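thread: overnight batch results

M.L. [08:02]
morning all. the overnight job finished for the chain we discussed friday. pasting input first so we're all looking at the same thing
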Amino acid sequence: MGKNPKDPKTVLPDITDAYKDLFGRDLVSIILYGSAAGKDYRPGKSDINLMIILTEDGIEALDRAFQVVRRWRGRGVAVPLFLTEEYVETSLDVFPIEYLNFKNNYNLVFGKDILKDLQFNPEFLRLQCEREIKGKLLLLREAFIETAGRGRALKAATVQALPSLVAIFGALLYLKGKDVPVERRETVRAVAELFDLEVTVFEGILDIREGRAKSGHRESFDLFKGCLREMRKLSRLINALGG
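M.L. [08:03]
and the structure it wrote out:
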């Protein structure tokens, strides 16, 4: 089917037609989310992420989508999230960060907009922020020991943690009543200013992830240590938000 599109929106009409043909009236909506819905999309590196909302009958017939999903994987379209409205409504207490992240950066491609009116319980959001940041700390410390602070694996562990951290940052801005920027770099800067974090640590990791900078062993080591330090600080601040 060719290479990944420079503009992800150019493939959406064909994708929409494919899912309409598959599910008919059982297709509730198609939503584009993530980097492809904003300015962080990078052709050939970023996935095109879709949320497919189906009726209960549609989700029971999910096997209809096998071939369409496989076909579009070759164009950089990730395996979509297949959900029902009930699943979304009953998951806001479990995955508030994820749904807030969806709501902050999406385009409605087809059908009903199931994200625009979502409301979030602040304490559920704070608890998930605390759980996620502490979980990431444990995983990164484990990676630090396993790699002995050296090699590509250490850099990869730092870079791979960034998307989850940015999602947590967005949730923290929301909890503090601040606007959540669409672009990752602006989100990093906003939360660093609000919580007095060292912004150069997270911007350095972002530069590596986006291919704007390269790092040797010393630079990777320093960024990793800085990331652990700032995450510990943030963990304490999130805990304090609970009163």
